[in-house]
Design a protein that fits this description.
269 residues; Nucleoside Triphosphate Pyrophosphohydrolase; Rossmann fold; 6-stranded mixed beta sheet; 7 helices
């Protein structure tokens, strides 16, 4: 339903948040600068700088919400935005998703009732600005390198002796439930911090019957038309900042040498 997200949530963290189904905003970067808006005094945390964003309606994905809000508040054409990932801030009863986007040139923008001013600020100068507290808290995670996880669903499911062979779709769903906690978070890999900005799980065979993730999920299910390994190799060649997740030696040997290969054990333990 349109606008069914408008409303406050009294969160168990002790704060009130706008957005009955959570909220999302667009972190649009062009040539090392990000678009920010000065919030009006009447708004929550008015007088601070933030990114265009607002409440998610129940029929929207988080990316759809962020692009819609950016169009409403800054007149940004969604067609010029290349979405490269999402960072999630999870509260007990609410969440905020920062959609990270790029554009080849600065798009035309226009102020709105919720954008007193719009400005392009260099990423290096941004921490010195008077930022919305939530935006300031998320900024370190937005500035770390990103990685796109391509998960070998069959291999990861098969590595757990939980009776997966009796119910492959059910085992696949349990894997998705566990991966949900990784998507949009900063993870450690080889001693460095990376944002898991994109997470997709390749399913093959009967595991392809797993249900699609809900609209507010940051996971993507890729159903392999044939061999899951073939699909993973193809995805590893066509995505940016890829890390393939598998312990299959045969698959590891087929992945391009430039693509890191890892396992989930370090993140799911």
């Amino acid at each position: 339903m349109e606008l069914d997200g408008n409303g406050w949530v009294d969160c168990r963290c002790g704060a009130r948040h706008w957005g009955r189904h959570g909220a999302a905003g667009l972190f649009l970067v062009v040539d090392g600068h990000v678009l920010v808006q000065l919030r009006p005094r009447w708004a929550h945390q008015g007088g601070t700088w933030a990114i265009p964003g607002g409440a998610r309606d129940s029929h929207e994905s988080v990316v759809t919400t962020a692009l819609r809000e950016a169009q409403e508040e800054a007149a940004i054409d969604p067609a010029v935005v290349d979405v490269v990932g999402v960072r999630r801030m999870q509260h007990p009863d609410w969440r905020y998703d920062t959609v990270i986007g790029r554009a080849s040139v600065r798009p035309p923008v226009q102020e709105h009732a919720e954008s007193v001013l719009l400005d392009w600020v260099s990423l290096s100068d941004l921490p010195d600005w008077d930022l919305h507290p939530g935006f300031r808290e998320s900024l370190p995670d937005l500035l770390v390198p990103r990685m796109s996880l391509v998960v070998d669903g069959a291999n990861v499911v098969g590595s757990r002796p939980d009776g997966w062979w009796r119910d492959r779709a059910g085992a696949a769903q349990r894997l998705l439930d566990r991966l949900e906690g990784l998507a949009g978070r900063v993870l450690m890999r080889e001693g460095k911090r990376y944002l898991a900005a994109h997470v997709e799980v390749v399913m093959e065979g009967r595991a392809r019957d797993v249900a699609d993730p809900p609209l507010d999920s940051l996971l993507r299910v890729v159903r392999a038309p044939g061999s899951g390994d073939d699909t993973i190799v193809d995805r590893s060649r066509n995505l940016s900042d890829v890390v393939v997740v598998t312990s299959d030696r045969g698959l590891r040997s087929r992945v391009p040498d430039s693509v890191p290969v890892s396992t989930l054990f370090e993140w799911l333990s």
